């Protein structure tokens, strides 16, 4: 049947918040015995039935709750093991009593990620799909949900498996050149090997080039709001947050430290960072604020560079959205240093809808795939593809068939580590330790 955990485990999968129903999940070799112990007999597989839950059903001792029960015999279960779910009334006393009964009958509380780890070990999903489950549970925006769902359904895994199949074919031809050196194999074999390797490298390089887009969807896009004092940065932050998140004052230098608010644009999580006004100052605290502002500008995915209509900047930050505020008191230039200016007035709300649309367009540009490939979502994936690509480049440089074959095998191992097919033991604790208890 595959991997069987030594223990039968249980966890509250529905979270600890107060609710009408609490879902208690159980998995392991003793699941059938435990379920009979709690409710008297096994229900039909994968059918919800209403049963009384007892401390000990054989003696009808201590009624704990009346709940919906679902029985999932392996291997057609989430973990691939026998398991069941109890849909209990969500009172803390009920959850505690049923959990105590499970412990009394031999089960133990699950560790973080243990259910999904068992699913991986039983071949129910690969590592990339398992990471997608973690991202799906943590998804806060539409973009995160779509990306995580595609990953759990195997979009990224299928692409990597496709590369592995292409590489396996190349390696087979390469092995033929090694095993039959004295045969007069046509030159087209060697040419075909090199052409296939080059094609794989091109696909991997396109994938790597878009790597930050997927990670931005997963972690969110960061906008740094910068500009001189009194340009309206804090007022813009309050408008974006739809609340008074920052202190607004006509006194220059009010904002000394970075202030962050989190929102959503175009279905993507975004963080806006209000920074100290950029100017030369002898005030040590304000000077530290300016230094931190410049740090956030360098780290941000995009910069919203603001200025007052009567004080246009001389220079523009790279890849900035240039915003001219206070159009109610003076006109703003159409462009500065070749960058178009978005004219707004935070006082009269002029141009704010246009600015929001421009920020949404920038978010889409920073996160959309231009190649049509599934996007990289984690640094681990990026590192694995880069390792495979480096091995393929080295294979192209080798004249000796044996050396080229070795580099191709190393590339295969790098791809295998991504999905968990080879050499992943040292990764498992780090990956599944990020999960919640019930997963």
UniProtKB/TrEMBL annotation:
One of its GO terms (biological process) is tRNA methylation. One of its GO terms (cellular component) is cytoplasm. Residues 223-311 form the G domain. Residues 8-124 form the GTP-binding protein TrmE N-terminal domain. It is an enzyme of class 3 (hydrolase). Gene3D superfamilies: P-loop containing nucleotide triphosphate hydrolases (3.40.50.300), Probable tRNA modification gtpase trme, domain 1 (3.30.1360.120), tRNA modification GTPase MnmE domain 2 (1.20.120.430). Keywords: Cytoplasm, GTP-binding, Hydrolase, Magnesium, Metal-binding, Nucleotide-binding, Potassium, tRNA processing. Residues 127-436 form the MnmE helical domain. It comes from the Bacteria. Belongs to the TRAFAC class TrmE-Era-EngA-EngB-Septin-like GTPase superfamily. TrmE GTPase family. Exhibits a very high intrinsic GTPase hydrolysis rate. Involved in the addition of a carboxymethylaminomethyl (cmnm) group at the wobble position (U34) of certain tRNAs, forming tRNA-cmnm(5)s(2)U34. HAMAP family: GTPase_MnmE. This is tRNA modification GTPase MnmE. The gene is mnmE.
